[in-house]
Structures are given as structure tokens and as C-alpha cells.
Amino acid sequence: MSPAAELRWLCRLLDDYLRPYTEPWASVAISKEKEKEILIASSQVVTKIQIRIREFDSRAEVKRAPNEELLCGSNQHSSVDQCLPRIVTEMMVLLTVKSEFVQHVAVNALALTSQFVRTTGNNWAGFIHFLCCWLEMAITKMITCSSGPSSGTENSELDCSDVEFLMQYGIKNIDWSTLAGVVRVLRVICKYLEEDYDDGLVKVYHDSVNSCLLKMPWDLLDKFWSCEFGSKKNSSSINQVQLNKFSVMEPVMNFLGTFLQFLCSLVDRNDLVETDCDSIDKHPLFVTVVNFVPRLAKWCLSKQEDNAERCFINYLNHKLLILMIRLGSLTGLDRRIRFSWIELLHNYFEEFLQQPLTQFHSDQINCLEGSPFLLSLSDGKACLTHSDHLQRQAVYLLLACSFSLISQRGENANHCNCSTLCSCFPTYPDSDHDRFCMRKGFLELYNWIQGHLPTAISINHEKYLEICMDFMSSFVQLYLREDDLLFEVLLLLFSISSCLQQQSERKDAAYQDVMKDFPFALSDIFKPVYLFHLFLCEIHYDHQVLLDYLISKDTGISCAKYLLRCLHLICNSWKLFVEFPLFGEILDQSSCKRRKIVGDGLQLLADGMPKSVDNSGSTMLHIKNYKEDSGCGFKRYNIKPFKKAAECLLSLNNSVYNLHQKKLFPYNPEVLLKRLRRFQEFCCQEKGFQ
Q: Is residue 154 scored above 50 in pLDDT?
């Protein structure tokens, strides 16, 4: 069957099953019985489309249309392209039904229709373009209606033909939940494209979405948002009035949350790295989203006092930080953007930046307590709880932005139109500009760390090293509860330390100028060898936890990078690694994070090294005990940290090698094994073995 015939089949399917429910009256409140009928009919449509796609794929005699036809259409399709608006609009009517279940099925049906159009060789580019145009017109209509009759449509980009087109297809009862549904459709399609990546299709999708975002009447939404919150602030403080106000704003905030979800999906970091698209120059869409961040912050992060809205604000906080972290990972991002983001963090996230690091307990329940996904609208106490999750994101973003200002030189690019974002950013020659950015970055790092250290700290303090180690230990504990960010932040601190060493060696003026005003040295806070020791201590030197990280889809790449860098540094700083001191307080505070997976007892240690292997496959080295050393101002334990760390890494070597030999390791670990073998050679040469 030809692509045109497939499209006509879909039209007939919708006529047979959905026509009774896609009239304009269907958008009003419906009874439970009518809701059930619609759900049954729309579910049947979804099922039949799925079957049709499978049948089309299984026909060996049908040759799928080339991507050029999918992207641009062909002459034979022009006669049936008019079916696409009809198909989309009939399904869109279901999004106006006042039922979350019907809307959910409608989203799935529209996303599946996208797959159907693409699979059958029809004009997929036209389908995506129509979806984006529909969203553009619908949100403009919604905003202009919400803004009152005085605003009219004269300030929007909709002309009379657009309005007639919208009305022609019967969408007269649009609300914020309808708009959220359309955004969800685009997000699901984006996820489909990630699973089956195609450069041409992704470009068409990005082009359409970017055009849609640029044409949106965001200025009208600015006015709408400020008017809504302005009226709220002037309203009575009675709880019932607050709840009524919230019930009015809830659909709008739901839309903003969905919209933020969509933007996060557009710049998914893992997908960008895998497809070699991790530069802001790859597509104008990324620049559009970057420029959109300050406006999103103004909409989403307004200070609210009632508990119900605080739950939404926490979720919006979470999504905005995720978006900024993903955008911040793009290469080529203008430093002025990072400068503006630091100011944004201080304006909206200061409470999370100043939240103490030393507040954690060893119970596993707390690992989930701060998650914004667990907050209930009816649970006021939970809504007021400061989220550790948000603290981790805010601190990571501050450190990342500060490091970018320190490390980048001569990158005053004009990728983004940020005149409205960075009016406080001065214009200097390149050399002065670099010094200004470096000083700003150093000051941010110093000021944040100083806020979490004792006020009496001094380099000459008798417990100075212990204070620095306590801070590093608390920092590791903070991120140990969130695997997604753990190795990202450890890699970031590793890079900061390397940068600080370079600045110190060449006696950089900006670094020296800032350092003299603070009673501690950043290089003492971020010692990568010590930080690695503390990380191993926090996971109880359990090599199976490391193995779990390495084979995880979410953390495998970043964990491998971190281990490779640490092993390289350790072998070049062996004495520092061997002589690492562990304080009693740090030992007592170590996390109880310990995960067990299948171990292996294969021994790969060098011949003659005193060792034993327990039942779980852990390697134990026999090293002479060290005595207390009172001359350093602290007590060394008889069980030396070096011994435990060496056992952990050598056991990891055994497990990784064994899995690799059985072809069970998810990627090629040869480079990691090579570093681990070099580490093993250093262990063999270490004095103190029996």
C-alpha cells in the first residue's frame, strides 16, 4: 500500500472510532460513563496504529521511503498532505477533554501518529511543523485571552488567517492543560528520536521547535505572569483565599513544569555526547534555550509563601537547575552567560548554597527524603523541607560556573544575545577581561567555601588539615546520595585542583590577589588524592560499589573517567597517597552506602605479594601496622587507609578483568585495567609488606 493510502487509512480509522467524541462539545466536563467510552475508543485507535506500524515494518516487499521524502515530502504526497492537519486536530480535541486519563491517551496517540507518518514514508516534516504551528497559535490565543480583551491580538504574531485557521478546525476550548498536553507530545517524539537517531530527522525537529519558540509571544506571558502574582500579593492572607488563588494558578504552573521538562529533553547531555552534538554551535535551538533561562527563572522561581505553591516551586527549581547544568556542559558557551547564571543562583538559590553540608545521617531513608518527586501537595511540612537534592544541584552549578570563569581565556564569543542578561558585565580588553573573570571565579569559590568552614580557620591553626578534611568528607557525603552528579562533581573538583596548581606555579596575579584576602588555601581544600581517599572511605572501601558504578548506564562513563584520572595522579604522587592520614571523626561519619553484587576470586596480584582473597573476591594485603604519630597533630590508625584503598582497587582489578574475560563487561575496560596494573606494580614496590 502506498504512503498516501496509509494516510487515508488513518483518516478512516479516526472517523470510525473518534468522530463522535471530537466535536466541540467534547471539551466540556464529561461524565464518568462518557469518559470510559472515549478511553475505550482512543485506546483501540492506539492499538490499531501500533499493529499497522508492525505490519508495515514486516512487509519485506515494501521499501521504506528515503529520508528526503520523509523530510520534504514528494509530489505524490501533496494531494494527501491536507489529511495531516485534520488527523492532528481531531486528536488535539481529545486534549481539551477535562480528563487526565483521556489526555494521557491522546498524547500517546499523537506521538504514535508521528511514528506512523515517519514509518509509512509520509511527510513527517510537515507533521512536526504542523504540531509546532498549532502550539504556537494555541498558546498565543490562550495568553491573549488570559490577558484580557484590552491586550487583543495586535501585539502578537497571529494574523487573521491564523485565527481563522485555528477556528476552522474547531479548537475553541483551549486551556493550560491542553497546551501542556501538546508540549508532552513534542517531548515524547523527542524521546523517540533519541532512541532511533537520524541526523536529518533531528535537524528538522530542532528547526521546527526553534522556529516555534522564537515566534511565541513571550512578552505577553511576562505580563500575564506578573499580573497574576501581583494580584496574589494584594489578596487576603486567609488560607482559603490562598487555596483558591492556587487552584487558579495550578494549571499554569503545571504547564511551566511540563515546558521545563521538554526543554531538558531537548538538551539531554548523554544524547548530545553520544551523537557528537555537545557544542552550542551545533544548532540555533541551543542558543534559543540558553537565552530563555532568565525568563524561565522569573516565571518559575517567584518567592511564594503558601505551602501548596512551594511544592510546585521546588519542582520548578529542580527542573531549571537540571536545564542549566545540561546547557552548562555544552562547549563554546559564552562566559557572560555563566556570569549571569552565578547572579541568578544568588538571587534564587542562596538558601540552598548556604545550607550546611554537615547535616547527614547514615539511615538510608534520608537518601530519598529530599527528592522533589516525593513532595505531596497536601503535605505542607514536606513542602517546607529544604531539599538536599536541590542543594547538590545548586552547589554543583555554582562550582561549574566559577571554574569556567577561571579556566577559559579569550572566549568572549557572541554566541548568545545576552545584553539583557549581563548588563552588569563590564567591557574590558581581552587580558583585563580574563583577569576580571578569573577574579570573579576565585571569589565565588572562596566565598562559598568560607561560608562552610569555621570562622576561626587559619593556615596556622593546629587542626587546619583536619578542618579541610572534614569539609571534603562532608562534601563527598552530600553527593554520595545522588549517583547522577557524584562523579560529575568529583571530576569537576579534579579539574579545579589542576587549574589551581597551574595558577600557583605561574603565580597568576588574579589568583594571588584573591588568595591573600582569605585565611585558607583552595589548594588545601581540593586535594584530589585526599578526595579520592575520602571517597573510598565513604563507600567503605567496597570494590563492588565501584564495580556497580562502572557498569551502570548512568554513571559508567563518568566513573571510568574519574578512576583513570585518579590512578594516573596517584602513580605520580605515590608518597602523598601512601601517607594519607585518616581522622577519627571522618571515620565515624563515613556513609553506610554499600552495594553488593556478584564478586569473583580470580587473583591477578604479582607473585610474591603477601595477600589473601575472601569469599566475596576482595583482596587483602598484609602490611605492617603503623604506630601513632603525635607530631602531626593527629592520630593515625593502626589500620592504614592506604592498605584499605589498595585492597579495594586491586579487588576491582580482579573483578573487571574477570568480567572482561567472560565478555560480560558493558564496554572495553583495557585502558582502566592497564592503569590498575600500574597501580599494582607500585603496591609491590611499597615498603612495609611482610
A: no
